[in-house]
Design goal:
The chain has about 150 residues and is an alpha+beta fold. The protein has one domain (about 10-145): Transposase IS200-like (Alpha-Beta Plaits, 2-Layer Sandwich), CATH 3.30.70.1290. About 40% of the residues lie in helices and about 20% in strands. The chain has helices spanning about 30-40, 70-85, 105-115, 115-120, 125-135; strands spanning about 10-15, 45-50, 55-60, 100. A 4-stranded antiparallel sheet has the order 2-3-1-4, with helices on both faces. Helix 1 runs antiparallel to helix 2 (about 70-85). The N and C termini lie far apart (about 45 Å).
């Protein structure tokens, strides 16, 4: 085969430090735009970004040469610096993240899910949601290290 073809799409989830409700509605759209710009600058594709005041979800496409851990480390570093310089001097992300591979058939449902975060979290906590993702994607976890 003379060329390489890959489809590497991830659903990424991470929260503010101690899951504090720090992401305000007044600046979250600018923040999401900045997140998308950081992903594009790194050579990725931002397909959807959404969340609530204490966490975000990102659906993104990466190249075969990307390393998820490096990209997310750099993304979290750049975006926390932007928030601290722009609106909230004490902003920080929680250590770690969730990154789950998704197939093309899952995109439309996942995009709707990400867009509906505010409504979704009126009835479910972030912790319940995250535990469900880990279970759904078959990720083993120790409850002691989730919160």
């Amino acid at each position: 085969m003379p060329s390489t073809h890959v489809s590497l799409t991830y659903h990424v989830v991470f929260s503010t430090k101690n899951r504090e409700p720090l992401i305000a509605k007044s600046w979250k759209e600018r923040f999401y735009e900045y997140l998308g710009g950081c992903i594009r600058t790194a050579g990725g594709v931002s397909l959807e970004i959404g969340g609530t005041s204490d966490h975000i979800h990102i659906l993104l496409g990466l190249k075969a040469t990307h390393r998820v851990a490096d990209l997310l480390r750099d993304l979290k570093r750049a975006t926390s610096a932007w928030v601290r310089e722009t609106v909230l001097p004490n902003f920080a992300w929680q250590e770690g993240y969730g990154a789950f591979t998704v197939g093309g058939n899952d995109y439309s449902d996942l995009i709707r899910y990400i867009r509906g975060q505010e409504e979704h979290h009126r009835v479910r906590t972030f912790q319940e949601e995250y535990r469900e993702f880990l279970t759904r994607y078959g990720v083993e976890f120790d409850e002691r290290y989730l919160w």
